[in-house]
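Researcher: Structure for this, please.
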Amino acid sequence: RAALRPAETAEAYMKSHTSKSVRKSMRRLDRRLSEIGEVSYEESGPDSDWESLTEEFLRIESSGWKGENGTALKSAPATEAFYRDLIRRSAAEGKARFLTLSLDQKPIAMLSDIRTGKMVYSYKTAFDEAYEKFSPGLQCEVKNIEFLHACDIDLSDSCTSPGNATFNRIWGQKLAFQNVIFGLRSTASRTLVRLLPTIQSVVKTIKSIK
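Model: Predicted structure, token format:
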């Protein structure tokens, strides 16, 4: 899946890994957004109001299609509680991180990341669908490249699927993953483990035919 290893500068990274058409499109969208209000980006810090940032993120994420489809963090009390606890504990350890894109001081897109040492994990992205034509989520991700280059990290993991179009357009590296299956004791389970690659291959072939 997509990953980011900082270059010498954010500008150098963008030129190497983000296409000219994407960079041009982002400048155009930023100008259009600036025409209707004041655009600003703010990264969280040690003195941030983490409860307010968490609340704002949950509000934005649940306001769109995720909320309608029941897949937003707020859609399930247990999931919401898990996220709130994750940010609360991570903030206490200096690991929580938010980047907020605001229009006239109103947040319209937010990134929620977790940093451990020199690694950043892109946990969640949310944007206000009322501004969808300006691609605020993508604008926030592109701007995030600058912030990531300024915070002394070795790697940022997108934590997305391999085919995620957004990150594949703007991040230039990849992280490889492998599924490992262990059989337990019985001969039947060992036989099943040996057959799994073949079964998976057959399933993929059937899906491609459909």
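Researcher: Any notable elements?
Model: The chain has a mean pLDDT of 91. Residues 73 and 82 are 9 Å apart (CA to CA).
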